[in-house]
UniProtKB/TrEMBL annotation:
Recorded coiled-coil stretches: none
Matches recorded under Gene3D superfamilies: 2.30.30.100, Bira Bifunctional Protein, Domain 2, Winged helix-like DNA-binding domain superfamily/Winged helix DNA-binding domain
Domain named BPL/LPL catalytic: residues: 70-261
Lineage: Bacteria, Bacillati, Bacillota, Bacilli, Bacillales
Keyword list, A-Z: ATP-binding, Biotin, DNA-binding, Ligase, Nucleotide-binding, Repressor, Transcription, Transcription regulation
Record gene name: birA
Protein name as annotated: Bifunctional ligase/repressor BirA
């Protein structure tokens, strides 16, 4: 983000513990010294701790662990994703806000993030626990040019993005349970909810929701889901700074989405299978009214789940729930 604020933080960050004079900042940013001071006050509101010393200048003492439009956008190296970013302290559901924004014409790549959701929702009308500051509750508006039948591939793309970020940035190798769950040690770390507004042959917009359990202790989850839910903190033993993780997700998502547009679904399929949950194993599968056991073989080129039934017949599933 090439804003004055972004450049200001960059200048201060480069100097680490050293002070940077108000004069130097004003020259490099081409703004007056009172304007520099005003920017410092704004940074403090965003949670930066700034030390100002007479005749020495300014330095950053600590960075914010507070999610805001500025803290996420500063240093974000995307070209379209998150260029418009709406951050709210509390909402019913970021999905709902995203639908409203999309219907009002919000551009491709608009991101909505909330500290807390009071009615977070998951797939199959389940509720999604989204307590204040404990996780990432985020919805992305996409305006793809592909046909509506390819939309489920976006869920799989998002799952591989989260898996990649958890592996490289957090140091956890998760498994993806088709179509939308990220698990580790058999417990759920994150879920994805893709909602679509489409006509027969064109997608008006997609709202892609991601819920990521980051800093919850296990006591944060309601008792009935403690057995099945986990957080990155529980798995690594360390709290994670949310803004850094959000940036990483947005940057990786943009890169992979661009690749998807240029090269199609194949690279995602391969990446997905590298993280696939219980590939090659027999698992209980729920489809429509029946539950049966099947062997998960991978995914098709269109994103459908490939399963062998107990007669050895290959089935292509577009809608199913793998029990775990
Ligand atoms: C699931 O696993 O069933 C999907 C969970 C998706 C939760 C996210 S949190 C951000 C966005 N807002 C919502 O209300 N839901 C999604």
């Amino acid at each position: 983000m090439e804003s004055t604020r972004g450049k200001l933080i960059e200048l201060l960050a480069k100097e680490e513990d050293n002070f940077v004079s108000g004069q130097k900042l004003s020259e490099q940013l081409d703004i007056s010294r009172p304007a520099v001071w005003k920017h410092m006050k704004e940074l403090e509101k965003d949670g930066y701790v700034i030390e100002a010393a007479p005749r020495k200048g300014y330095r950053i003492v600590s960075y914010p662990d507070k999610v805001s439009m500025n803290t996420v956008q500063w240093g974000l190296s995307t070209s379209w994703l998150g260029q418009r970013l709406i951050h709210k302290a509390s909402v019913t559901s970021t999905q709902l806000i995203a639908h409203q924004e999309a219907q009002a014409g919000a551009e491709h790549g608009t991101v909505i993030i909330a500290d807390e959701q009071t009615k977070g929702r998951g797939r199959l009308n389940r509720s999604w626990h989204s307590y204040k500051g404990e996780g990432i509750w985020m919805s992305i508006i996409l305006r793809p040019t592909f046909e509506p039948h390819r939309s489920p591939q976006i869920t799989l793309l998002a799952a591989t993005v989260l898996a990649e970020v958890f592996k490289t940035y957090v140091g956890i190798k998760p498994q993806i349970k088709w179509p939308n769950d990220l698990l580790t040690n058999g417990k759920k770390l994150a879920g994805i909810l893709t909602e679509l507004q489409a006509e027969e042959d064109r997608v008006n917009y997609i709202v892609l929701g991601m819920g990521i359990n980051v800093n919850q202790p296990s006591s944060s989850f309601p008792e009935d889901i403690q057995r099945k839910a986990s957080s990155l903190k529980i798995e690594t033993g360390e709290s994670l700074e949310l803004t850094g993780l959000i940036k990483e997700i947005l940057q990786t998502f943009e890169k992979r989405y661009n690749e998807f547009n240029e090269e199609g679904f194949r690279p995602i399929k391969l990446r997905w299978e590298a993280f696939g949950y219980r590939l090659g194993e027999m698992v209980p599968i729920q489809t429509y009214q029946k539950e049966w056991n099947g062997r998960i073989m991978g995914i098709e080129d269109d994103g459908a789940l490939r399963v062998l039934d107990d007669k050895g017949q290959e089935q292509k599933l577009y809608s199913a729930e793998i029990q775990w």
